[in-house]
Amino acid sequence: MNTSLLHLHAPDHWINDPNGFLYYQREYHLFYQYFPYADAWGTMHWGHAVSRDLVHWEHKGIALFPTIREDQNGCFSGCAVEQEGDMVLFYTGVRYLTPNPRNIHVSLDGKMESNQLTIRSADGFAFDNWAGKKVVISAITDPAVGDVSDTRDPKVWKGKHGWYLLLGSTVNRQGRVLLYESKDLIHWEYRSQAGLEDSRYGWMWECPNYVEAPGGEVLLVSAMDFCPENQKPDSVVACFPVHFSEASGTMKISPQYQLLDYGRDLYAPQTTLDAQGLPVLVAWVRMPTPTEEGWIGMFSAPRRVQVREGHVSFSLHPNIRQACSCPISHPSQAFSAGYRVECSLKEGEWVNLGGFEIACRDGRICTDRTKVYPQQGVGPLLCQTPMLNRFEIEVLVEDHLVEVFVNDGEYTITNAVYGLHRDWSGNLSGTISFFTGKEE
């Protein structure tokens, strides 16, 4: 049995985007982009994992794989919903216009045809890849609406008057979301598009995710070549306040964005409602190289999403806190799954967790992974939050991932790490409390 604790990571080889996150029949189902043949990106399948508590995860093998013309070069990202007891998946199927003759798993020129497909299951485990797929939105041909290659990643939710679907796309090299409506999950009517008329917000918006969170509505997009705070362009997840109107079929987007995470390793988030009916989020942690065990790609710990006085917070899910509630006095006493740290910092104070440094400097929480990150890594070594009024931190630490939650998720910094050791040091004037991860 292939299992993961606290953080779900690849069973082997390569994974990227989480897909089809859904609390269904008293279990959390999480699918993911999976290339089962090598530790590199290739023809996408959907892997599948389940959990009863968001802590203990069990891999269930491959759920989706290419079988028809519309998805012959990959089952790209998508979502899951429940309808009349069935689990219904939506995803983007791609067909390369010019496959690379030396490697059929990649396109020669990046051009492809993208269609939106659906498939359903009566139990959430058995999917008929040979006869159960249906194309519900054909490849877009009007460039004023979206792009034939770069329109993907359906997000579906149920409103008061019908079902709604968002697609990420691009028009005139500016990110867009496309909105569709349906009464039956099969026949979809295009309603509108939404975006911001400014190239600084990225040329393509992948993996759109609309969240009705406590305190407000939020749109998360994985924006390609986004320019946060006039810095160098990067692919990051931006969070926008929005208002969705069912009556008009439109979404109004405010330009007052914030980043999902200030470590820059998180991408392609997925949300669902947890057992308490509150929105919970996971995201892909981008890793530069495979682990010694030969896998690459993992997901963040689940986070609750809420809006506090106009600010979106992402706090560690209480199930994770409960699982990490057995006190220890030193990280070396923790189980292999990792441990949780709680402490309060003052200006100039710092703590070093196995080579990963967290400090309070100039009114911000700053992190440094220089000693535990490969030189060929593409992510930043030094990260920092915006200016803060207080500095309470909670840290989830495991061998390849450090997640820093500041002020109960007001801001977060998430970083992949390599070579982390089980020790700590610091110049704290206060106390530091460790909590082990329970293994059951």
What is the mean pLDDT? 95
Which spans of ≥5 residues are poorly predicted at pLDDT below 50? Answer: none
> Using DSSP, what is the number of strands?
37
| C-alpha end-to-end distance | 14 Å
Proportion of strand residues: over 45%
Q: What count of helical segments does DSSP give?
A: 1
The 3D shape can be described as: globular
Structural class: mainly beta
What does this protein structure show overall?
- GO terms for molecular function: beta-fructofuranosidase activity.
- InterPro entries: ConA-like_dom_sf (IPR013320), GH32_Enzymes (IPR051214), Glyco_hydro_32 (IPR001362), Glyco_hydro_32_C (IPR013189), Glyco_hydro_32_N (IPR013148), Glyco_hydro_beta-prop_sf (IPR023296).
- This is beta-fructofuranosidase.
- Belongs to the glycosyl hydrolase 32 family.
- The chain is mostly beta strands and 440 residues long.
- Helix content is 1%, strand content 54%.
- It contains one helix and 37 strands.
- The radius of gyration is 21 Å and the shape is globular.
- The two termini are 14 Å apart.
- The mean pLDDT is 95.
Short structural description:
The chain has one helix spanning 318-323; strands at residues 3-5, 13-24, 27-35, 45-51, 56-64, 75-83, 86-96, 99-100, 103-107, 112-121, 134-137, 152-158, 163-171, 174-182, 188-195, 204-213, 216-226, 234-245, 250-253, 258-259, 266-273, 279-285, 295-296, 298-299, 303-308, 311-316, 326-328, 339-344, 350-353, 356-361, 364-368, 382-384, 392-398, 401-406, 411-416, 424-426, 432-436. It is mostly beta strands and 440 residues long.
